TrEMBL record:
<protein>
    <submittedName>
        <fullName>NELFB factor</fullName>
    </submittedName>
</protein>
<feature type="region of interest" description="Disordered">
    <location>
        <begin position="558"/>
        <end position="584"/>
    </location>
</feature>
<dbReference type="GO" id="GO:0032021">
    <property type="term" value="C:NELF complex"/>
</dbReference>
<dbReference type="GO" id="GO:0034244">
    <property type="term" value="P:negative regulation of transcription elongation by RNA polymerase II"/>
</dbReference>
<dbReference type="InterPro" id="IPR010405">
    <property type="entry name" value="COBRA1"/>
</dbReference>
<dbReference type="Pfam" id="PF06209">
    <property type="entry name" value="COBRA1"/>
</dbReference>
Amino acid sequence: AGSRQAAMYAGLQELGVANGEDLKETLTNCTEPLKAIEQFQTENGVLLPSLQSALPFLDLHGTPRLEFHQSVFDELREKLLERVSAIALEGKVEERYKKLEDLLEKSFSLVKMPSIQPVVMCVMKHLPKVPEKKLKLVMADKDLYKACAVEVKRQIWQDNQALFGDEVSPLLKQYILEKENILFSNDISVLHNFFSPSPKTRRQGEVVQKLTQMIGKNVKLYDMVLQFLRTLFLRTRNVHYCTLRAELLMSLHDLEISEICTVDPCHKFTWCLDACIREKFVDNKRARELQGFLDGVKKGQEQVLGDLSMILCDPFAINTLALSTIRHLQDLVGQDTLPRESPDLLLLLRMLSLGQGAWDMIDSQVFKEPKMEAELITKFLPMLMSFVVDDHTFNVDQKLPSEEKGPIPYPSTIPEAFTKFLQENRIACEIGLYYILHITKQRNKNAFLRLLPALVETFSDLAFSDIFLHLLTGNLTLLGDEFALEEFCTSLFDGFFLTACSRKENVHRHVLRLLLHLHHKVAPAKLESLQKALEPTKQSGEAVKELYNQLTEKLELRKPSPAEVTETPSMELPLPTVPTPASR
């Protein structure tokens, strides 16, 4: 209690104001306590002559003096806080800040007094430059640091990168966790996936908002956050840091913070790309604008390519560029045009290539655009176009009256070159994967089964990355009815998923997510063997075990009771299943 008392009166003595300790001393050393109390009240009470006659009235009403003084104090404090805020806006800049500095000088010794602290904090909040000595005192005291306004903290942070890092770090961890939770969410849907929220909605997220508030208009703090993001991206290769880099800039853009936007050389490029991401398509007008920015990088300023590549490495940007590429390829088939003759397509590839090369560029600090392999344009993309043509031909063949030779089967082989491209060329692999997502979304089972074997070995295992598997599992819900067929399940599970489950925990999780959603569609015999194959091992993480238990519970509920089985001997037939709503 003693230390709490001391805190209540902290700093009063320095100002020559009597405090509780003084009263205690007076009473200890006096002969007439009541007189001493009266004298203390007179000396330290509210010095208004008109008040002396009014106070006995309050005594008659049984209002304690403490209550009266407290209410006067609160009233005065409110007035003072209002006055401080007003001073911060009036008169010449130098004069107003001079007044506030004087006030801070007088009041700072009371900063630890809980009742006065808000006033001192308010004065500091309105000072664009709090004296260094005061900032050091605040920084050294945990409670004071906690209590001060973000405006004051910014002044502390800008010269203390480590302290700022401690504040930002938990937010960045939270951000990555939120992204991963969406990718592994149990809700599997083709309509609501990782890429569904608009850029504007994403920027309202808690972490982006908090970081925006912490940075304010402070360029130095903004640069520090970008430096943290670059470092973490290099250390972890986690592309979500690239998303945050773009979201943060656009959040400051939304608030029209020109102090920062005008000095970030990526601002206009990011703004234009943001509009493309919103539409999930790069139209011709914006394509030319983006090209203008890339072509406009001057000699000696190549370092900006490192930042642009990070903006383009954001999965939302890659998604938009890849979807646009697939759309362009389909258009080219209709126009009888080769990829190399389409400047728009070449620009999309150039941006994909810059985005995919972000890590290498920032790591090597060699700032030049990666060279595009000619074969990507002359061989790989025409090959994808030939797959589109195969589909058209097959569909037309199906409609023609069949001759004696019977229907033409769907082509089942894939060119060896396709598989090789997916293994060795990062851009080819990314576009190839998006083409497979595209045919799955079109419910094109034939094309899907034809190309699936090429996914077992891909460039840096991209086909087993979380973003691809998240999108693939969503699109596979459209092929739900195919899961009743042994052949389809064997190709998909044994031929693809299970080849990586044991070495990649994330694949194990995605397969379990898919089965939790579609188990009622899978042929019972297949389901049983999958349940065995997917059983967690000792090394499996909590998430896998939890998903596996959920699946086991669901399957238990579906098993018929022994009584039912004896009554109906024809139980060899799979149980009719109740169709479940797609949102499950």
